[in-house]
Amino acid sequence: MNNRKRLRNIFEYSNNLLTSESIRNIQKAILKVMHSREIVIETLPTSNIMIGPNSSISDYHLWTWLRWEQEGNCIPPIVLGTDDPGIFSTNIQTEYARLYCHMVYEMNYPHKEAISILSRFENNARIYQFAEHS
User: Fold this and answer.
1) Number of folded domains in the chain?
2) How far, in Å, CA of 94 to CA of 92, rounded?
3) Radius of gyration (Cα) for the chain, nearest Å?
4) Residue 133, in any domain of the structure
5) Residue 134 lies in a domain
6) How sure is the predictor about 130, in pLDDT bands with cuts at 50, 70 and 90?
7) Which stretch, 6-15, 41-50, 124-133, has highest mean pLDDT?
8) Which of 27, 33, 51, 79 could form a Cys-Cys staple with 125, CB 3.0–4.6 A?
9) Exposure pattern of 63-85 as b/e (b: 16+ CB <10 Å)?
10) If you ran DSSP here, which 8-state letter would residue 114 be given?
């Protein structure tokens, strides 16, 4: 069974136990804890879409996090990354461009707002990078 089907089966099983609202509330509570502890989310759009439960960038979970943040929920710092560029034929510039284009041309974000969000991800990457400490 491929990953997408397996994850769908897990999610369908979970839906029998919890309502969608309960699942959202649990997710928001976990994100709030992550925010308070500065636990960073590294999001890998191309990789996540190709091997995860999302079928396209339109239903990618990043948009939910951004919406929840706009609604006043605590969201941890987010950084953008790539996962195995040789397999997924992507690089960090392509990931930023893909998000920008989707935000502006598909989601109708104003240019300045899209740039502001992506700049925040870039700044988070500088702050929370893995680096050798001397």
Assistant:
1) 1
2) 5
3) 16
4) no
5) no
6) confident
7) 41-50
8) 79
9) eebbebbeeeeebbbbbbebbee
10) H
Q: Which residues form the domain of 60?
A: 3-127
Kindly report the CA angle at 8 between 19 and 85, in degrees rounded to 5?
125
E strands present in the chain: 41-43, 78-80
What does the block give as tokens for 46?
A: 């191309």
Chain centroid offset of residue 21 CA: 20
CA neighbor of 76 nearest in space, from 115, 41, 51: 41
- Answer whether residue 61 is part of any domain: yes
Q: In which residue are the tokens 């040789």 written?
A: 86
pLDDT, tens digit, for every residue of 11-30? 555 556 778 898 899 999 99
Q: Does any domain span residue 78? A: yes
